[in-house]
Structures are given as structure tokens and as C-alpha cells.
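Review form for a predicted model. The reviewer records the input and the model, then writes brief findings.
Reviewer: anonymous (R2)
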Amino acid sequence: MSARLAPRLALLVDDQVPERAWLRNALLQAFAGIHILEAASIADAFQMLKRHAADAYGRNPIDLALIDLGLPDGSGVRIIEALQERGGHCPCVVSTVFDDDAHVFPALRAGALGYVLKDLPAAALTHMLRGILGGQPPLSPSIARRLLRQFRAAPTERLCAEPAHRQEALTPRESEVLQLIAKGYTVQQSAITLSLSPHAAAGYVKDIYRKLSINSRAEATMEAARLGLVAREQR
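Model under review:
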């Protein structure tokens, strides 16, 4: 797999000055020469998105975002959703103090690639951010454990599930696409690898997300591990 290009322009959204300094330093340590846009609120972030709009080909100039969830004017999930709507597959990483289901899963469903807690040592955060280049979703250990627990429901709980919620089986081709997506391939890279058109590959991804009831690459990675398509240590 060809590695993801190092980000050149990052959006950093956090209303606390010390935390912004910590995140800024981690970005500078992880990616030499990166330019960082800083915002302290959703309104500030949206103004920056307007100034750095997608080009005529739909390419998003912002190629990495670190976003806090508890902002003065609302949830940072709104920024994640806005970046996903712009296209360009901008990796969004949540950086927050919240580690509960009510915050973790809405952020991942909105399209967050990773979720890190602010108790991480600076060196650990820098290492996680660099891992994005190799397709490794940045997840704090406690968040990774929380995600894994979602796939450890007791057999009786699965048997009692309503038939309407029973998961549809993936086709062999969909499994191949999911495996590549979980390894960090973009939709375009997956299409090239499997000799598909970009439109067909995007269609497979859409069907995979629908069948598995997921909405982000991080969730796709966890599902691929649960299905045995990738080794758990590859996440």
C-alpha cells in the first residue's frame, strides 16, 4: 500500500489555550513543516472552513483536523460532520477529556478517524498522529478497549436480538473492500487494487457501511478485526 501523504494544512479546534499549545506541539513534532489553523469555537472553525474552501474538483485543502468536543458554542461533532460533507477524506481526530459512550460513539458515527484523550503523554500523541500515515487510527487505549467491548455481547444477547436488526452478510467483494479500508486504503486506492472503477468502489463502501450499521473508518476497522479480515494488532 502506498503511504498516505503527510498533511500540509491542519485545523486545530480547542477553546483552552494550554491544550491548544499541547496539540500544536504534537502536530509540529509529528509532521515537519505543517501549517496549522487554530480555532477556539465552532463559529471560528466554520469561518476557517469558508476561507479554505474545496477547489473546483472537490478537493479539501485541510487534510487533518484535531477537534475538541466540548466547545463554547456546541459539540465539535458539528465540525467533523462539516468536514466529511466537504469530501476529500480529511482525517478527523477527536482530542477530548470525555471517554463515555455518549461522546465516543456519536463522534465516530459522524466520521472521526480517531479518538484520543488529553491524558496522553505528548510523545504518545505524536506517535499516534504519525501512525495516520500508515493507516493506523489514533485511539487512546481506554477508547480501543471500549470499542472492543461492543463486540463482546453475550451469546444470549445476540440470540434475543430482533430479526430486523440482524446484520446482513457481506459478499466476498465487499469483504475485500472492507479489508483494504481497514488497512488504511482510500476508496480510490481500493478501486485501483481491486481493478474497480472509483464509482463501483464507493458503492461497495456505502453498502458495507449500511450492512454493518457503521459510519466511520474507525468503526470499519473494528468490524474488519471482529470479522477476522485483519489482525487486531493492525488497527
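Findings: Residues 136 and 235 are 6 Å apart (CA to CA).
Further findings: The chain has a mean pLDDT of 83.
Recommendation: see findings above.
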